[in-house]
Write a structure and sequence with these properties.
Radius of gyration: 22 Å
Strand content: 35-45%
Shape: globular
Oligomer: single chain
Number of strands: 9
Helix content: under 10%
Structural class: mainly beta
Largest sheet: 6 strands, antiparallel
Length: 143
């Protein structure tokens, strides 16, 4: 009879998946192609985004088509090394990205905050980039 008293405790035990997990970055399958950003003639172009985009870089909301998570982008060039991009869906901010190019122009930090997921959970992160080429067509070296 005493063994039956232990059944609820065993059933209430945690799952082997319960816990806090850290990503093993060596296991991530990154895209084979590098990211390509171009700022030219007052416009921003992301040639390699999942949904390629070209919008004015004037800091105002610009309509985008085909993106299930955003219907506008506002691209603001802060200075020669810093850009901010705000994504909205239905007038609500769903993502904010800040790009900062290093003084030697060979690396870039991308800080982002997004809540475009189904449950609106806020996700923050940083991605680092290493420059492998300049876009020869760009009039600004913010690429």
């Amino acid at each position: 009879m005493r063994a039956l008293g232990l059944v609820p405790a065993v059933c209430a035990a945690q799952s082997v998946i319960d816990g806090t997990w850290k990503t093993d970055v060596s296991s991530i399958d990154f895209p084979a192609k590098p990211s390509v950003f171009v700022f030219k003639d007052g416009a921003y172009e992301c040639k390699t985004c999942a949904i390629p985009v070209v919008v004015k870089a004037d800091g105002k909301d610009q309509k985008v088509v085909g993106d299930p998570y955003a219907d506008t982008l506002a691209v603001k060039i802060i200075d020669a090394s810093h850009v901010e991009i705000v994504s909205k869906k239905g007038g609500k901010i769903v993502a904010r990205s800040k790009y900062s190019v290093s003084t030697d122009k060979n690396s870039m930090q991308h800080e982002y905050t997004t809540n475009s997921s189904v449950n609106a959970e806020v996700v923050k992160g940083t991605t680092s980039y290493a420059r492998i080429a300049y876009d020869k067509a760009s009039t600004t070296q913010m690429s």
